[in-house]
Design goal:
- The protein has 444 residues and is an alpha+beta fold.
- It contains 18 helices and 7 strands.
- It has helices spanning 47-51, 87-93, 96-105, 111-123, 132-135, 144-154, 168-193, 207-216, 227-239, 247-257, 262-273, 281-292, 298-306, 327-342, 349-362, 365-369, 377-386, 394-414, and strands spanning 3-6, 11-17, 26-33, 41-42, 71-74, 79-82, 85-86.
- A 4-stranded antiparallel beta sheet has the order 1-2-3-4. Strands 5-6-7 form a 3-stranded antiparallel beta sheet.
- A hairpin with a 2-residue loop joins strand 6 and strand 7.
- The longest helix has 26 residues, at 168-193.
- It binds s-citryldethia Coenzyme A.
Length: 444
């Protein structure tokens, strides 16, 4: 880029280059768009029309895929805002359903606004009775994320009155159904895996409390959810609700851009979240800590994480955006001590091991130079385990929380007048034109 200058509307970037094709050097003026916070963007929508060139950005490290008002992240300063509110304040003072309302509607609700929303979520928490049959088709040892992908996608086979994405009323009903039913579907996946009967949601319980009730109660005895655990879970759900254009959210947006129904889009998001580089990391962190086993083995694993020839990575460390502490990890770290203390797990060996691993890694020149800090997944699994939740359910709970962010982002995309189907291009490095040859003429 040779210069930036202003025209009558906005600042322009003047780009001159020689693309190595006939026609010699090219010049193009790209509008520079500035948001409320964060980096400016070069508007390249006309780049191909004007130059015949694409941009190239595998992994989208330097690409803004959309305009959004929902979440802002400053990776250098470790800042995370939802509709302008710091995550630390929301985690401390709000509730998950209130944050869900904020993400979807853009403002914190008044009591008059929140009450019908809360009531709607409560009344949509039951699943169509026939969906129970889906579970018996899975093996008992199926990973619950496999069940989540299947059952959430199947919701579109049952709720035909909320599939028309062009109808705001149907979008709202589908959104409330998804927020309300995710905990029920998740708890049923857990019950199925341990051979216990499904438990129905209870309308008098709060969102997090109801999930824990459906996870741990049985028909044989009354069950009261531990308020410490319920409060901690509600806070964890807030911390996982939304996170700008991460891989699973971008998957939901891309699926939604084709006009797919909301249930199919959320199933696509769940599938993407499952990956160990993304939402599957919380389960992987716990497996890693158990594999390390003792603090004497930490150096061995730190060295493996630094070894280019070893595919091992320190799970729960590093982030595409945060090159400082993930603010959610800081809140979770504090919550870890509080919850384990309140639950009588002060001397949790896994927590001690995690603290020692974090200390050693943060003092290691490799991690310092590459700005690798603990992320949201590093501590969450330790709290979940202390709550009695099996590690196979960790990413499922991440999906329950992130459904709210996926829905808010999906709604924003549908309502964006400039929205069109997402269709990236490529840098083609394959064969040039060639013609079919029969077997007899092919050489080995
Ligand atoms: C989530 O995007 C989001 O917002 C995601 C999320 C959300 O809320 O939606 O925040 C949730 O997914 C958190 C991340 C959970 N994943 C993990 O904890 C898995 C371990 N972390 C890594 O796989 C990695 O850090 C990623 C995938 C999270 C980020 O990878 P990037 O952005 O592609 O970074 P990179 O792979 O280019 O890493 C830069 C360098 C590389 O070394 P070089 O090639 O430059 O020599 O840092 C190294 C990497 O090898 N590196 C690590 C490392 N993470 C990065 N080395 C050792 N251990 C690690 N964990």
């Amino acid at each position: 880029m040779t210069s930036r200058f202003l025209d009558e509307d906005h600042e322009l970037a003047h780009l001159e280059f020689t693309p190595g094709q006939p026609g010699g050097s090219q010049a193009v003026n790209l509008p520079i768009l500035q948001g409320t916070l964060g980096p400016s963007v070069l508007d390249i929508r006309q780049l191909y029309n004007e130059t015949g060139c694409f941009t190239y950005d595998p992994g989208y490290t330097s690409t803004a895929s959309c305009e959004s008002k929902i979440t802002f992240i400053d990776g250098e300063k470790g800042i995370l805002l939802h509709r302008g509110y710091p995550i630390e304040e929301l985690a401390e003072k709000s509730t998950f359903l209130e944050v869900a309302y904020l993400l979807m509607e853009g403002e914190l609700p008044t009591h008059k606004e929140f009450q019908p929303f809360d009531q709607s979520i409560t009344l949509h928490s039951m699943l169509h009775e026939q969906l129970r049959n889906f579970y018996s088709g899975f093996r008992r040892d199926a990973h619950p994320m496999a069940i989540m992908v299947g059952v959430v996608g199947a919701l579109s086979a049952f709720y035909h009155d909320s599939l028309d994405i062009r109808d705001p009323q149907q979008r709202m009903i589908a959104s409330h159904r998804l927020i309300a039913k995710m905990p029920t579907i998740a708890a049923m996946a857990y019950k199925y895996s341990i051979g216990q009967p499904f438990m129905y949601p209870q309308n008098h319980l709060g969102y997090a409390e109801n999930f824990l009730y459906m996870m741990f109660s049985t028909p044989t005895a009354p069950y009261v959810v531990n308020p410490i655990v319920a409060n901690a879970l509600d806070k964890i759900l807030i911390l996982h609700a939304d996170h700008e254009q991460n891989a699973s959210t971008s998957t939901v947006r891309l699926a939604g851009s084709s006009g797919a129904n909301p249930f199919a889009c959320m199933a696509a998001g769940i599938a993407c979240l499952w990956g160990p580089a993304h939402g599957g990391a919380n389960e992987a962190v716990l497996n890693m800590l158990k594999e390390i086993g003792h603090k004497d083995r930490i150096p061995e694993f730190i060295n493996r994480a630094k070894d280019k020839d070893d595919s091992f990575r320190l799970m729960g460390f590093g982030h595409r955006v945060y090159k400082h502490y993930d603010p959610r990890a800081s809140v979770l770290r504090k919550a870890c001590y509080e919850v384990l203390g309140e639950l009588g797990h002060q001397r949790d060996p896994l927590l001690d091991l995690a603290k020692e691993l974090e200390k050693i890694a943060l003092e290691d020149p490799y991690f310092i130079e590459k700005k690798l800090y603990p992320n949201v997944d590093f501590y969450s699994g330790i709290i979940f385990q202390a709550m009695g939740i099996p590690s196979s359910m960790f990413t499922v709970i991440f999906a329950v929380a992130r459904t709210v962010g996926w829905i808010a982002q999906w709604m924003e995309m549908i309502e964006d007048p400039s929205q069109k189907i997402g269709r990236p291009r490529q840098l083609y490095t394959g064969h040039n034109l060639r013609h079919y040859s029969p077997f007899s003429e092919r050489k080995p």
